[in-house]
């Protein structure tokens, strides 16, 4: 650092009208060369660097604007999709509720129809049982009557002789005759 300071001091004490010589101090000459090069670069490169930075700035700003527009469009599409989703969910709930009420109605109708069919079947069964009971009772009556008649005929045939037989016939004729007179 001391050498750098001495170089500046040396430049300050350099005679203005003197000889042109070769400066052998490397640090002093490099520093001068670097300041000249950096000065030239700043003077001439400032415009190029400014243009490059302005172009980069414009590209970044246009990218940000495009991103904002895409974001707004995406948000609008998202809101539309949410509204459509809510509408579809409401319709689905409505269909579900209508479907449940329709199912309940059909279930009630089926239960009613089944109970009516069961009542009719029960009534038909009871009527069939009644008729079968009546038929069985009639068959039993007929058999009892036939057996009673056969037993009575057998008893009569075994007990009756011809005289008793004629007497019974006369008595029946008398009963029939008295019935005619009452008419």
Automatic annotation (TrEMBL):
It is a single-pass membrane protein. Residues 71-98 form a coiled coil. GO terms for molecular function: proton-transporting ATP synthase activity, rotational mechanism. Its main location: membrane. Keywords: ATP synthesis, CF(0), Chloroplast, Coiled coil, Hydrogen ion transport, Ion transport, Membrane, Plastid, Thylakoid, Transmembrane, Transmembrane helix, Transport. GO terms for cellular component: chloroplast thylakoid membrane; proton-transporting ATP synthase complex. The keyword Protease does not apply. The keyword Ion transport applies. The chain crosses the membrane at residues 31-49. It comes from the Eukaryota. It is found in: Membrane; Plastid, Chloroplast thylakoid membrane. It holds the Pfam family ATP-synt_B. F-type ATPases have 2 components, F(1) - the catalytic core - and F(0) - the membrane proton channel. F(1) has five subunits: alpha(3), beta(3), gamma(1), delta(1), epsilon(1). F(0) has four main subunits: a(1), b(1), b'(1) and c(10-14). The alpha and beta chains form an alternating ring which encloses part of the gamma chain. F(1) is attached to F(0) by a central stalk formed by the gamma and epsilon chains, while a peripheral stalk is formed by the delta, b and b' chains. Component of the F(0) channel, it forms part of the peripheral stalk, linking F(1) to F(0). In plastids the F-type ATPase is also known as CF(1)CF(0). Belongs to the ATPase B chain family. This is ATP synthase subunit b, chloroplastic. It comes from Alopecurus aequalis.
